[in-house]
């Protein structure tokens, strides 16, 4: 992740990730720094623009046509909100990467880190909650038939609990984030106490909460959901199965490379692969896998929302109201779909 990788700064002294790697590796990373200054800002800004537009449309549709008692809509709303928090931090990291110096001060270093980490863990936890909700609806239909009438207060309490979990998971990185003056340049990075296990704990937290836990939940839930859907004589079963497979596959494809590199960093800080060549290769690999992982938040609106015909129609309806010259000629089958 940005705060503990070659995020947007450089891969040498001012990278947040470098702050929690062994300090005894005086490797020359000038080529990686030059690559980061060009590559990362353009990618971060592109992800920000595409993701901001898509997730903002999701929020607008859900606010206008929401059902407060529908936990799926509530989770989708908070998932889009988490992605937006994450995306808002990217322009700051892009600026940091471009000029290789943090110019926004200590408060903004903590504030941007909070946005980044809260958005990161929030999106994972709400995706897990949505998966469990789908599992309850399809596998435990009778139990869910009672729980679906939960009060608005119960849903609010559940959502607040997920945000508290996200904040708790974010605290180690947020607390240890500091602004320092190094070689006449200000840096915003994670400063861990020497001789502590915090470095290992943060790596483990990333791998467990960032990949192992959500994938375990998805594999378990979807392995029970798919056979039930396949046995149903429904015209929509193939679309439902396809959507489920896309959800699991895209998450796995986009986040696994990142977590593999994080795990290699975990080994690296214990002395394995302890050469300059490995250090440089891992730094360069982090640039690419980080970009792939970040772009996942751009796909969330498509995967969770725009795949659904009803949501597409509601989105188009809003766009026709706001931009009649651009979208006024588009036709929809609104009455048929909204009755389903």
UniProtKB/TrEMBL annotation:
- GO MF entry, a single one: C-C chemokine binding
> Which UniProt keywords are listed?
Cell membrane, Disulfide bond, Endosome, G-protein coupled receptor, Glycoprotein, Membrane, Receptor, Transducer, Transmembrane, Transmembrane helix
Cell membrane found in the keyword field: yes
Q: Which GO terms describe its biological process?
A: calcium-mediated signaling; cell chemotaxis; immune response; positive regulation of cytosolic calcium ion concentration
Q: Which Pfam families match?
A: 7tm_1
Q: Which PROSITE patterns does the protein's record reference? A: G_PROTEIN_RECEP_F1_1, G_PROTEIN_RECEP_F1_2
Which stretches are transmembrane? 43-63, 75-94, 114-135, 156-177, 197-222, 243-267, 287-307
This protein's membrane topology, according to the annotation, is: Multi-pass membrane protein
Q: Name one GO cellular component term.
A: early endosome
**Entry-linked InterPro entries:** CCR1-9-like, Chemokine_rcpt, CXCR4/ACKR2, GPCR_Rhodpsn, GPCR_Rhodpsn_7TM
Where are the coiled-coil regions? none
Tell whether Nucleotide-binding is among the UniProt keywords.
Answer: no
Domain G-protein coupled receptors family 1 profile as annotated: residue spans: 54-304
- Localization annotation: Cell membrane; Early endosome
Q: Which family does it belong to?
A: Belongs to the G-protein coupled receptor 1 family.
Protein's recorded name: G-protein coupled receptors family 1 profile domain-containing protein
